[in-house]
Amino acid sequence: MTSIAKPPVRHPSLRQNSLGLTLRDYEGVMSTLCAGCGHDSVTAALVQAAWELELEPHRAAKMSGIGCSSKTTAYFMKQSHGFNSVHGRMPSVTTGANAANRSLTYIGISGDGDSLSIGIGQMAHAIRRNVNMLYVIENNGVYGLTKGQFSASADVGSTSKRGEANEQAPIDPALLALSIGATFVARSFSGDKKQLVPILKAGLAHRGLALIDVISPCVTFNDHEGSTKSYRYTREHEVEAVHADYAPVHAEITLPESGDHLRVVQMHDGSSVRLRSTAADYDPTDRASAYAHVRACQARGEIATGLLFVDGGSRDMHDLLKTPPTPLIDLPHERLCPGAAALDALMARYR
Amino acid sequence: MNGVNDFAFKIGTVNGTGSASANGLLMQAIFRMGIPVSGKNIFPSNIQGLPTWYEIRVSKDGYTARPSEVDLVVALNPATYSKDVATVRPGGFLLYDSSWPLPKELERDGITILGIPFGRLCVESFEGDRERTLLRNIAYAGALTALLGIDEEVVDTLLNQTYGRKPKLLESNHTAIRLGRDYATQHCPCPLPFHLEKMAATGDSILMDGNTACALGAVYAGATVGAWYPITPATSLMEAFKAFCEKYRVDKETGDRNYAILQAEDELAAAGIVIGAGWAGARAFTNTSGPGISLMQEFLGLAYYTDIPAVFFDIQRCGPATGMPTRTQQADLLSLAYASHGDTKHPILFPANPHEAFEMAVQAFDLADRLQTPVFVATDLDIGMNDWMVKRLTWDDAYRPDRGKVLDAAALEKVKKFSRYLDVDGDGIAARTLPGVGGKGAYFVRGSGHDKHAGYTEDSDAYREVVDRLRRKFAHAATIVPKPACTLREGADVGLITIGGCDAAVSEAADKLQAQDVVVDVMRIRAFPFGDEVREFCEAYDTVFVIEQNRDGQLRSMLAIELGIPRDEMIPVLDYGGMPLTARVVVDAVSGHLAGVPA
Q1: Is residue A131 within 8 Å of residue A95, measured between CB atoms?
Q2: B contacts of A339 (beta carbons < 8 Å)
Q3: Interface of A with B in 249-268 (CB under 8 A)
Q4: What 3-state class would DSSP assign to A24?
Q5: For residue A9, is it within any domain?
């Protein structure tokens, strides 16, 4: 248990957002994950991001599959609707829900087992459809709930707690997403809230699927010497290529305009993401250079983090389906049913 | 059979050569002559080059089952000559392409062999291989108009309607019809002893396949999300839904599409999409066949356990495994009824024909919303893909969807606390909320153990409370699903129980049995779970036959499991070779059993 039950009283000095909600209002039930689990830090970052973005909790839907990561949807935004589905199938359930009601904010939480093994097909096709959703992979290289088997994201040579080394090449969700046309790809570290919160906010504002791979160490099964998804290893090997700052629609710009390679990407809702690259030749709006950068980091044994790629003008599933701005669930029956006269007329075709 | 307006003929060709349009033309022409007609397309799982047959039955009495015997075979595929010649009834006719000498395989005593050189006629009249091949089909249709007495005007009108915008094609089609017709008139005994004479028995009917009917039902029921993965014989259902949506659901001013069709990466995803959409409040459906049902199992259990509505159309084909994708069967009954691991049960509707498929498609959406659970509509390849003569479809504009128990924001104001799985009314159905509704209505859907408040649980009592409610809900379902259709006769002492598309053959068999002084009552089961009427029928006769199209007597097993009817007291009549059922199979099995002949 990472947290003890909190009393329902509110500290009067807790800051409120414009909805009159405090950070506490964006929390969920008590986490049942192991103390020190990276996932709880991701949860905390999500709470922060949702509070700062002033999301109406009941207009958000939390979607997940099965696994330690998928349990976390219960640990934030308790006033939101949630759907803990079946292993590896969160993307299809979210696709359907989004098709039916496009007006909600869909927050999908998955893990490396859920998304890179059993659910890799569903993840890939949700990316292809560009479902408007946040897609967070809490990536720890290991199956936690079944006690420590390697996942598909385990690096070659990474050892399990018992000392066994992984021999199979890892699947990098960022590279996979870039290669199949993802319109928003980022990587972060659960221990780096300063980096993670603005990325989550930008991902939530993105129209289309925002894939965020978050290295999130498993303290029980994968935080030892020899693991490449441990807190220590990640801290030592993380290379932030592009720092993202998220600016909501009417936010006052407090960041310095100048600086290293600043780029401003306009989002659909009028908000903007300000990206600062650390290298002159890195363009986070160019898919090929993003891909090359991640590969180059990988070759050097480094982990590329930051907002790696964004397409501010992406067309989401509804744009491609040409559905109306009104959610399909809100269309009255009269607009859906052609009626008796039309059926009568149609019958001539079958005579 | 074998008189005026009472016969059957069969055309054997090679698939991918364009015979479908000629066969459709013949069907439609007979239909427009006012004569009841039905067609069975027996096609291979292949795009080009394998044998394919089309059987057309003409029945002044309105029987639509597959014919028990064939009066005339048109044998145009040398690869199946020996098989085809054997299917002609004694005293019947065989027509072959006499561009080449009569092959040895076609020689047979006791039938009349007619030859028309379709190939040669087309070579002489048309240019190019493609045109000659295509028009050879129209030429045999032309010959049949003369041999069977199909009205020339009706055929001309049909051609004009089909090719009106393509004058060149229209002309060559007319020429091909004439080629066949003139040759037959001059060289063959036209008309044959069995032939057509105009009637007025189809005025209130249409020719429609079940997939089209189901798609239309989905449109009329207000379904907005369709997700699927292509599979024979279910594919044409979503294609029809798309075509109807393009016709009826596109906003004329904005061009917006008031529907979402998602071709998923597999059947698992298709199931996930419709369940996600159902949870979000849309009427959503998928169309699939046996292999897809196998893949959807886990999701079906999730939707069952979490009370989410969705409609699943299963167009059954021959299993197991890939089986025979273009042959028909009713062998998914058990895997639908109890789909998924754990204790699960699902309502199923069993239409007998495309007309009922339309009505049941609409009912399925109402039942899914009312019962908050996946509902199957189980048809089969025969219903789904063949054109059936059925009564015209009608619609009542007073229809409003039954969306079941859904609490909106206003209704939530009135409740003190919202508990997702609380059975207030005692029918096992708890009110739901849709995502997006205000804070009090938010809850967490989970496939893991949950209590009546939707909270996680590993507590025995809390778990049982929920699954016992689901059992009550299923018992309630038995009272609201369609009741069986019973046809009772005076003095009947034998009961025939059947399901789905077997109806046509069983009804015909009941008439034929009566002519043999065997009087039977027929009950066609229209839904699962079974209501009281089903039990009453089963218990009312000393001798009960269960007629279905699978090897293991799945319907019989379900009657035994659900109603406790002793299995051995129900006599199975099983036809599972992949062809639509014929009345003869039923008559022979029933009269044989009653006469003490072992099956």
Answers
A1: yes
A2: 395, 397
A3: none
A4: helix
A5: no
Q: Inter-chain contact B260–A351, Cβ cutoff 8 Å?
A: no
Selecting from A97, A100, A337 the residue whose C-beta is nearest the C-beta of B220 gives: A337
The verdict on a CB contact (< 8 Å) between B225 and A344 is no
The CATH code for residues B485-594 is 3.40.50.920
Using an 8 Å CB-CB cutoff, list chain A residues near B445: 81-85
Domain assignment present for A190: yes
Q: Which residues pair with B208 in a beta bridge?
A: B388
Cβ of A121 within 8 Å of Cβ of B255? The answer is: no
- Domain membership of residue A11 (yes or no) is no
DSSP string spanning B59-100? Answer: ETT---SBPSSEEEEEE--GGGHHHHHHTEEEEEEEEEETTS
Cα gap B155→B153, rounded to integer Å: 5
Kindly state whether residue A270 falls inside one of the protein's structural domains.
yes
Contact residues on chain A for B266, CB-CB shorter than 8 A? 121
Rounded-to-integer distance, Cα B234 and Cα B592, Å: 36
Per residue in B450-495, pLDDT tens? 999 999 999 999 999 999 999 999 999 999 999 999 999 999 999 9
CA distance to partner chain B, nearest, from residue A276 (Å): 36
Q: What is the pLDDT of residues B142-192, one digit of tens each?
A: 999 999 999 999 999 999 999 989 999 999 999 999 999 999 999 999 999
Ramachandran bin of B92, using left for φ above 0, alpha for ψ from -120 to 50, beta for the remaining angles: beta
Place of tokens 């894939």: A211
Per-residue confidence of chain A (351 residues) as pLDDT tens digits?
444 556 666 677 789 999 999 999 999 999 999 999 999 999 999 999 999 999 999 999 999 999 999 999 999 999 999 999 999 999 999 999 999 999 999 999 999 999 999 999 999 999 999 999 999 999 999 998 888 899 999 999 999 888 899 999 999 999 999 999 999 999 999 999 999 999 999 999 999 999 999 999 999 999 998 899 999 999 999 888 888 888 877 555 444 444 556 778 888 787 888 777 777 678 889 999 999 999 999 998 889 999 999 998 899 999 999 999 999 999 999 999 999 999 999 999 999
Give me the CATH number covering residue A139.
3.40.50.970
Q: Which residues of B touch A110 (CB under 8 A)?
A: none
B65-95: burial string, b at 16+ Cβ within 10 Å, e else: bbbbebbbbbbbbbebbeebbebbbeebbbb
CATH superfamily placement of domain B6-187: Pyruvate-ferredoxin oxidoreductase, PFOR, domain III (3.40.920.10)
Cα–Cα distance for residue pair B589/B491, rounded to 1 Å? 20
Per DSSP, what are the bridge partners of residue B263?
B228
Taking only the tens place, the pLDDT of each residue in A292-339 is 999 999 998 889 999 999 998 899 999 999 999 999 999 999 999 999
Q: How many helices and strands, by DSSP H and E, does chain A display?
A: 12, 12
B6-187 against B485-594: fold identical = no
Length of chain B: 599
Determine the average pLDDT of the residues in B17-36: 95
User: What's the domain count of chain A?
Assistant: 1
Cα–Cα distance, B181 to B152 (Å, whole number): 10
- Nearest-Cα residue of chain B relative to residue A59: B436
Asked if residue B48 has pLDDT above 90, the reply is no
B216 contacts A343? CB cut-off 8 A: yes
**What span, in angstroms and rounded, lies between the C-alpha atoms of B366 and B176?**
50
Q: Which CATH class is domain B208-391?
A: alpha beta
CB < 8 Å from B in window 19-58 of A: 57-58
Domain that holds residue A179: 23-350
CB atoms within 10 A of CB A241: 23
Ramachandran bin of B227, using left for φ above 0, alpha for ψ from -120 to 50, beta for the remaining angles: beta
Q: Where are the alpha helices (DSSP H) in A130-244?
A: 173-179, 193-205, 231-237
